[in-house]
Amino acid sequence: MKVFFYGLFMDEDILLKNGINPSIPQKGYLNNYALKIGNRASLIPCKDEKAYGILMDVNDEKISKLYAEESVADYVPETVKVITESNEEVTATCYNLPLELLTGTNESYAKSLYELAKQKGFPKDYLAKIKIFYKR
Fold it and tell me: Mean of the pLDDT values across residues 60-64?
């Protein structure tokens, strides 16, 4: 199944440690979504915004097991349209935390996500939006 990752699960090493062997990673973005970071990251609908991430093919049983873990069990799958670097629109699953559960702050998570997004080559304006979550 195709999954769009936008948080630290964009790191293939983290997925491999969780028994997931992702394939065909592609950078992409979602139109009309914005990244929010509380204790964890989530994407929320937001007109005229873009949320960047990595689209990967993963085993659906293993991804279900991953999102059954306590720290991410509240995330719900949502069908999204990802625009890839080659400007192709791909239907994928994206796991998001419901807005009412997006609480707290996690500067360490935000810093780690910033470094990962920078490594992945996301646009500078998007990196600046991530940095806001730890430059308070």
Answer: 91
